[in-house]
Amino acid sequence: MQISGLFFICFVCILWPSLVSGQGHVLDKPVTELCLNCICEAISGCNATAICINPEKGACGIFRITWAYWVDAGKLTINGELPESEHAFIHCANDPHCAANTVQNYMKQFNQDCNDDGEMDCLDYARIHKLGAYSCKGDLPYNYQSTFEECIENYEDQGFE
Ligand SMILES: *[C@@H]1O[C@H](CO)[C@@H](O)[C@H](O)[C@H]1NC(C)=O
């Protein structure tokens, strides 16, 4: 009895992120937490203030997600909102959890070796996130790249991979 109760609690806590992410499906997550943290550091300083810095294309929340990116990532929503509803995009992009799942979905779909080093890893995800899936081999803006690299080095110094 006690064991099955414990099992149930863990089952709920494991499922919870996919339950709250709403309409879309998050089947697996290619991007590590560490990598997500460094992408968010580089792109917004992980500033969780709910804002969109570009009124036309969006660029909202800690990952500065654009509307097109959100669409390509499967239009995840929060609080059971319909993807078609007017504010579904902004609400998701400004919610750190929904935004992170959006990044995961996008990377799952557009996973590629942008820097031709024979691996698909965080360096590629950082490129895909900033430059888009179809131009990820291009040049990264200096500030983005240096903040990202500093963040990764920091983690490496602390013994994380
Ligand atoms: C976060 O962003 C908001 C809006 O741009 C800004 O007012 C605030 O100072 C920022 N916070 C930090 C800690 O940088």
Automatic annotation (TrEMBL):
EC number: 3.2.1.17
GO biological process: defense response to bacterium; killing of cells of another organism
PROSITE patterns, A to Z: LYSOZYME_I (PS51909)
Disulfide bonds: 35-122, 40-46, 92-98
UniProt keyword terms in alphabetical order: Antimicrobial, Bacteriolytic enzyme, Disulfide bond, Glycosidase, Hydrolase, Signal
Superkingdom of this protein's organism: Eukaryota
Catalytic reactions on record: Hydrolysis of (1->4)-beta-linkages between N-acetylmuramic acid and N-acetyl-D-glucosamine residues in a peptidoglycan and between N-acetyl-D-glucosamine residues in chitodextrins
Signal peptide: 1-22
Alphabetized GO MF terms: lysozyme activity
Matches recorded under InterPro entries: Invert_lysozyme, Lysozyme-like_dom_sf
Keyword Disulfide bond: yes
PANTHER family with a match to the protein in the record: DESTABILASE-RELATED, LYSOZYME
Official protein name in the record: lysozyme
Gene giving rise to this polypeptide: LOC117570521
